[in-house]
Amino acid sequence: MFSPSDLFDLKQTSHAALFDGCTYAWEALRRIAPYLAANLRPGLKNRCEGRAFIGDQVFIGEGTVVEDGAMIKGPAIIGRNCQIRHNAYLREDVIVGDNCVVGNACELKNALLFNDCTVPHFNYVGDSILGYKAHLGAGVKISNVKLVPGNVMVELEGFPHDTGLRKFGALIGDHVDVGCNAVLSPGTILGRGSVIYPNVHWRSILPANMIVKNKAAFEVVVRRPRES
Asked: How far is residue 128's CA from residue 167's CA, in Å, rounded to a whole number?
């Protein structure tokens, strides 16, 4: 489930060339910066609502709205009919597809978003790829660096495999939903159509169409009137 076509519909991005020759989808993360250097043609066809900072090495497609307070440093390519909302922060080497939402206080860095992605509120997306119609709930954080030295490892055929990447957040397949305030540890891979419940801390690999539930215990008691 690690090849690009296992996780992503490559017809749902204008930048499928990033995956040419990739055995494993995470190999494309190294290619984002050189791809932008070779293919970016700056141009702003968007509409701004308020004041935003947009760097010199940025292309934004028609119909996209950039709201007040957004900062797009570049290099970046942003597609058509997107919403880049208030206080969004797009750092270096970001590619956003068509019809995407990058919301309030979200931060993106070295990331690829396929078409129709939703990253709506208080999200961090670093060194990651989000597939077609992937959705992050409010407050989802994708951790991209291990706490200890060394490259990010993934389990491949039952053995640890060195990805060769010191920074690698997540590969989030098509139609994946990640619930509010979940945390995805470095090297997370979520198969197509999978679901992560809110407040889950997930590490490692989740096959397609699986659900990770959070069965935290709650106690419900009768509310008794207080003495006045």
From this structure: 9
- Which contiguous run of DSSP H or E holds residue 224? none
CA distances from 146 to 92, 121, 126, 128, 143 (A): 21, 24, 13, 14, 8
Architecture of the CATH domain 4-212: 3 Solenoid (2.160)
- Structural contact between residues 218 and 167, judged by C-beta atoms closer than 8 angstroms: no
Q: Residue 73 — pLDDT band, cuts 50, 70, 90?
A: very high
Instruction: Give residue 137's identity as a one-letter amino acid code.
Output: G
Residues near 68 by beta carbon (within 8 Å), at least 6 away in sequence: 49, 50, 51, 52, 86
How far apart (Å, rounded) are the C-alpha atoms in residues 84 and 61?
Answer: 12
pTM score: 0.94
Instruction: Return d(Cα 220, Cα 228) in angstroms, integer.
Output: 24
Over range 169-197, report the average pLDDT: 98
Instruction: Classify residue 12 as left (phi > 0), alpha (psi -120 to 50) or beta.
Output: alpha
Burial class (CB in 10 A: 0-12, 13-18, 19+), 126: buried
